[in-house]
């Protein structure tokens, strides 16, 4: 239900915000604004909803997908004259399009993974807009470095994965200049969105922790914009998040979205706990939907784990080079049992813990010596820093030690692949692996188990796939700290920090009966094949539609400065206080009841000394001097304190915590 109250009645009465008339009919704006918009500075005093007077002949909905990187690959041409571009088929932002309505136009806003010279940026922008419907955000090198490698990777990423900067050498300490670069980068993204947005027709879907303050920039410009945000990383518990010096700024910025999505219930619960403890907001759950009441707006909370792109993987499984690679791997590992790990080179992926568990497996169960092989594929690191270098050195040392201890002629227990591996080659390894092991100590989602399940299922017509009569089977050992763990009920869940337990789980997985492996595989495949990336994006979009359905029925005011900005949404029947009308009604009335809340109205909430001033006593006495007035001071404070404070007032009475000030008997 929409609130009809206001956060500050004094501001409401004095009119310190843009006036708002009756709800008007929606205008149609052009798909690309004829004049590029420039966002107002965050510290402007007034923020109005912007619209264009130019009508548009196109009325269907459009969605603008905003992410840190565009789903496009950029490559310099061999002649060094210009650039060539192609879709990045592995990009989630591109894949999610399959779940959106077919008639919906999709526009992408993000940065390019290439350094484009300033003189080429206009031409590149035009090519990307015309051919790919992409709008690039070009970040200056100094901002890019501090924004991405600084605040995002050295501060937010570790903190959201539960790593506190205990010392200067452990994690990254908060640096105000990095935060300012983060804000500046988000502002550049917002400017690119504003240049192309049709605020009354378009949806905006923002992705991941790189752009958490972007909702405030856009909401400040367009009060009624339909906007969703999805966090692809974990959201930490309140005890971790509260250490963030800009914790309230980020929370308030996210709450300027209409719908906030998380992969798991735990991540959503942590976010709601932070909103409760730091902002005093409580959520409500009705008919399966979770919402936060925020200044008259209901901010929806969506819990939906992302899936994989089934079509992409199935098409790869049909490729001839994949079948050739499978045959080659089967010959190479003939008679061996393959355990597979596929991870990014990252301090939170638990790669070394996995290696230690493999070492323990070979020690505890000597029967696997010479038979079990762990193939660890490690994708290139996205971040950088001393922590990452230390982890890389530790992994290399573990691989060397394990191979030296258990090497036999024609057998090495650990094969470490430290290079980019294509989806085709990766699927070949999935096809021949008996078990996939994920030992991440913290991960937002991790889709490796999903890919493995689909590859083990295979597709008809592939030479490497089993005969239709052959049972499909797979086994998973997954960390309980990753986002996909709750959805894989047939997997063996482990605490990766417990090396012995992880080793036993790996032994159980590869020793399990084929019939049990088949049952677990079938259960997993039913889930993975039906809850793919299209299902995820369709579900999020439908919830965004539902959450935003009343946007153009409400009266909205933008209030607050900087990241304290928020939109106050009121019912269409709400009427702003009119001083002249109140004065007229006051004069005409014969009896008046005046209720004053003590803490927060009579006395400021932040005042330490709660004793009323002489000015307050004088004003109350003036009100009480009129025989038509009955003045109530409402407070939960004790009788003794109030009796002492209001002793100078004329004839005061106390009744159930409410003080009545006038010549009346408390009835």
UniProtKB/TrEMBL annotation:
GO CC annotation: cytosol
Gene3D superfamilies: Glycogen Phosphorylase B, HAD superfamily/HAD-like
Pfam family, one: Glyco_transf_20
Gene Ontology biological-process entries: trehalose biosynthetic process
A GO term, aspect molecular function: glycosyltransferase activity
Keywords: Glycosyltransferase, Transferase
CDD domains reported in the protein's UniProt record: GT20_TPS (cd03788)
Domain of life: Eukaryota
InterPro entries reported in the protein's UniProt record: Glyco_trans_20, HAD-like_sf, HAD_sf, Trehalose_PPase
SUPFAM superfamilies, per database record: HAD-like, UDP-Glycosyltransferase/glycogen phosphorylase
Family membership: In the N-terminal section; belongs to the glycosyltransferase 20 family.
Name of the protein in its database record: ALPHAALPHA-TREHALOSE-PHOSPHATE SYNTHASE [UDP-FORMING] 7-RELATED
């Amino acid at each position: 239900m929409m609130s009809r109250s206001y956060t500050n009645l004094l501001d409401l009465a004095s009119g310190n915000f843009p006036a708002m008339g009756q709800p008007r009919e929606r205008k149609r704006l052009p798909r690309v604004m004829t004049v590029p918009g420039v966002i107002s500075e965050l510290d402007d005093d007034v923020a109005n909803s912007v619209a264009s007077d130019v009508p548009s002949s196109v009325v269907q909905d459009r969605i603008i997908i905003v992410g840190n990187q565009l789903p496009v690959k950029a490559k310099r041409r061999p002649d060094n004259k210009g650039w060539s571009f192609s879709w990045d088929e592995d990009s989630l932002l591109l894949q999610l399009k399959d779940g959106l309505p077919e008639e919906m136009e999709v526009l992408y806003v993000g940065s390019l993974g290439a350094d484009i010279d300033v003189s080429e940026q206009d031409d590149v922008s035009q090519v990307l807009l015309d051919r790919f419907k992409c709008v690039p955000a070009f970040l200056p090198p100094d901002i890019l470095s501090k924004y991405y490698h600084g605040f995002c990777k050295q501060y937010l990423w570790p903190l959201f994965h539960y790593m506190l900067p205990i010392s200067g050498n452990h994690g990254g300490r908060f640096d105000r200049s990095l935060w300012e670069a983060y804000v500046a980068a988000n502002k550049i993204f917002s400017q690119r969105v504003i240049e192309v947005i049709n605020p009354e027709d378009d949806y905006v879907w923002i992705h991941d922790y790189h752009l958490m303050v972007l909702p405030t920039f856009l909401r400040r410009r367009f009060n009624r914009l339909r906007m969703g945000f999805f966090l692809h990383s974990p959201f930490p518990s309140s005890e971790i998040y509260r250490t963030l010096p800009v914790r309230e700024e980020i929370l308030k910025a996210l709450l300027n979205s209409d719908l906030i999505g998380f992969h798991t219930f735990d991540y959503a619960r942590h976010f709601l706990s932070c909103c409760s403890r730091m902002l005093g907001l409580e959520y409500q759950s009705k008919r399966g939907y979770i919402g936060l009441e925020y200044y008259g707006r209901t901010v929806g909370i969506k819990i939906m784990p992302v899936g994989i792109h089934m079509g992409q993987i199935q098409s790869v499984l049909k490729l001839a080079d994949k079948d050739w690679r499978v045959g080659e791997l089967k010959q190479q590992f003939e008679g061996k049992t393959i355990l597979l790990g596929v991870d990014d080179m990252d301090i939170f992926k638990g790669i070394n813990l996995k290696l230690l568990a493999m070492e323990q497996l070979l020690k505890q169960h000597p029967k696997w010596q010479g038979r079990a092989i762990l193939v660890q594929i490690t994708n290139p690191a996205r971040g950088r820093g001393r922590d990452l270098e230390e982890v890389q050195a530790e992994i290399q040392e573990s691989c060397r030690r394990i191979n030296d201890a258990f090497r036999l002629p024609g057998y090495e227990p650990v094969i470490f692949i430290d290079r980019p591996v294509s989806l085709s080659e990766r699927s070949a390894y999935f096809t021949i692996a008996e078990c996939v092991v994920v030992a991440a100590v913290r991960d937002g989602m991790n889709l490796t188990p999903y890919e493995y399940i689909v590859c083990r299922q295979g597709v008809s017509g592939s030479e490497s796939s089993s005969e239709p009569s052959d049972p499909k089977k797979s086994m998973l050992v997954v960390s309980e700290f990753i986002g996909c763990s709750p959805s894989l009920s047939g997997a063996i869940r482990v605490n990766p920090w417990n090396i012995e337990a992880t080793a036993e789980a790996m032994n159980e997985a590869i020793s399990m009966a084929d019939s049990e492996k088949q049952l677990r595989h079938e259960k997993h495949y039913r889930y993975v094949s039906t809850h793919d990336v299209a299902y995820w994006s369709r579900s999020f979009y439908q919830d965004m539609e539902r959450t935003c359905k009343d946007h153009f029925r409400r009266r909205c005011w933008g209030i607050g400065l900087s990241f304290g900005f928020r939109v106050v949404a009121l019912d269409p029947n709400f009427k702003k206080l009119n001083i002249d009308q109140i004065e007229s009604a006051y004069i005409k009335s014969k009896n008046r009841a005046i209720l004053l809340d003590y803490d927060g109205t009579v006395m400021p909430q932040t005042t330490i000394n709660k004793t009323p001033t002489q000015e307050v006593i004088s004003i109350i006495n003036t009100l009480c001097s009129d025989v038509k007035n009955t003045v109530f001071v409402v407070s939960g404070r004790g009788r003794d304190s109030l009796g002492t404070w209001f002793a100078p007032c004329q004839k005061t009475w106390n009744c159930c915590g409410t003080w009545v000030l006038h010549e009346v008997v408390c009835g």
